[in-house]
Amino acid sequence: MPGRRGLIAAASLLGLALLWAWATSPFGPVSPERFPSPPLVGAAFLQIATTGFAGATLPRQVLTSLGLVIEGFLVAASSGTALGLAMGWNRRFAAFVNPVFQLLRPIPPLAWIPLVILWLGLGNAAKVLVIWFAAFVPAVINAETGVREIPGALLEAARMLGTPRHRLLVEVVVPAAAPMIFTGLRLCLQATWTTLVAAELVGSFYGLGHVLSEAQQDIYPGMIFVGMAAIGVCGWLTTAVLGWVERRLLGWHASARPAHA
Amino acid sequence: MRRFVLLGAAALGLFAPGVAGAQTPIKISYQPTNYWALPFYVATKMNWWAKVGLKPSFVLFPAGVPQMAAAAAGSWDVGATGSVPAVLGAARFHVLTIGIDNDESATNVLVASAKAYPGLAANPKSIAGKRILLTTNSTVDYAVRSCLAHWGVPDSQVSLVNLGQAPIVTSIISGNAELGGLWAPYSYEAMQKAHAKVLCSGKAAGVVIPGVLVARAAYAKAHPDLVAAYLAVYVHAWAWAKAHPKEAASMLQAADVAGGVPLTSFGLKEEFTRPTFSLQQELALMDASHGPSKLEQWMGQISAFMQKTGSLPKPPATASYVTDAYMKRVGADAKLRAFAESAN
């Protein structure tokens, strides 16, 4: 029943929009100075789409952030997944790495910014590192859990058939852990978007995080809404792309099938 | 209930400012690492608020923009801030400018790293094509752009990168940046730790950058006497600081340690070169009886800068938010005037 579910979702969004319009109208309880009304957000959208804001129009801001997110995601996903697989595969290695990982994990990405500037300056590498601190964690945890949860019988059967160690890893362990790895990648991608604003605080010229930062400096709530909505839409689109890749690669696994199938 | 009783009593004049005894709560906002925050520290240490019937609670902010944003939620009643956020506050949330806390034209500066300084000092126009780190929508943004205009270099010929003050200092110290827009005390830190040098200041560029005293319009309208009492304490604290430089210096040092940016002896000496104003000087600078006051003119130039950068497409008219009404109240009240002018 995807049609009915779509209608319900549309009704929910429409209801929210109507509530917002009423609440910020002259008859509503909320002042548009504190919570921008739909016309104020519309005007801000028009401004960034046509004349631009924070140095560029919306497409350039989106493309800049998208580039940074893809770069940060690839670095965090590849390094995090590799580390997680190694930790899941070798318990001694996990015991060696885990204390450092547990120490680094709770530190908020914002806290790294002064050090990152010292180490890497203000270029893209510094921004990617800020993203990496937040985004590699779910990739590590899920890849490690994925390996640990592989049924022992499966590994035993492969070993009994004389499968060499490297083939066991590539042809048994990684595919068996893949559903959990993809769960980690989805969380990693979300973390990448949620850290974007912090990353773009490191001396950016363009980007949606830069737009939010400039709008905050201008106390421009309408533009803050536009920036947030743009990040929401971009995050949703990239998650959808990752979901599509997952379904293509893991068609054999139940978790990769669409929920309504 | 107690609050209503107190406010009611205040409205009936049962304890007018100037009379010690019952104290009316007032929320004062400021940024603790600034020189102009010294009067708040001194007045609290000396217990001067009680003398005018105020019981302050302090709301501290790292910068002027979040300070102005908090005005919308009524987080503070009166305060002190930079002139750029004050214009923004006036445009967005009806924040009034009611006084001048100091002249910071000389302490909003463009610094260059020790390596870059000689070449740029010899030929300032060679700044074209370079990257300058600064905090946008701030007094130092105004100072830096004024410096560029002074040299005849259009903004478009440099890359202005928005960063907080502390990361700018970090970038200069680590050699990742050669030019930064800084206000004191961060400029002193860059000079001390990275041997950076001042290439230009707002003053050198020919503009006046006042720090200002502010009040929420609704609060000021409802409690003009309390706002006047607040101003009297602030002006009195500067009079005291001028008459007691040694004590004031040690208080500033203590206040800056508490604020998280300790001053060196170099910074301490520099800070006390800033002009601050007596009651008479405040009134003269805000006198609009013969056309726009000096303060209105300065704020008007800052509004024009904000319009040019796109921060405020339509800045408010300066006369709509710069007012000497509350400072005049201090002058008109014999007790408050005597207190404000006293140096002890």
Largest sheet of chain A: none
- Give the mean pLDDT of chain A: 90
The third-level CATH topology of the largest domain in chain B is D-Maltodextrin-Binding Protein, domain 2
Question: What structural class do you assign from the helix and strand content of chain B?
Answer: alpha/beta
Which regions of chain A contain 5 or more consecutive residues with pLDDT less than 50? none
Short description:
Chain A has 261 residues and is mainly alpha-helical.
Report on this structure.
The complex is a heterodimer of chains A (261) and B (344). Chain A is 77% helix and 0% strand. Chain A is an all-alpha fold and 261 residues long. Chain A has one domain (38-250): MetI-like fold (Orthogonal Bundle), CATH 1.10.3720.10. In chain A, α3 packs parallel to α6 (124-148) and α5 (109-120) packs across α6. The longest helix of chain A has 32 residues, at 58-89. Chain B is α/β, with parallel strands linked by helices. Chain B has two domains: 9-103 and 209-341, Periplasmic binding protein-like II (D-Maltodextrin-Binding Protein, domain 2), CATH 3.40.190.10; 108-201, D-Maltodextrin-Binding Protein, domain 2. In chain B, 47% of the residues lie in helices and 17% in strands. In chain B, the strands form three sheets. In chain B, strands 2-1-3-10-4 form a five-stranded mixed beta sheet, with helices on both faces. A three-stranded antiparallel beta sheet of chain B has the order 8-5-9, with helices on both faces. The two termini of chain B are 37 Å apart. Mean pLDDT of chain B is 90; it is low at 1-20. The chains are: A mainly alpha (261), B alpha/beta (344). Chain A binds chain B through residues 31, 33-34, 53, 113-114, 117-118, 121-122, 201-205, 210, 213-214, 216-219, and chain B through 65, 68-69, 72-73, 88, 92-93, 133, 136-137, 159, 161-164, 166-167, 170-171, 173-174, 176-177, 310-312.
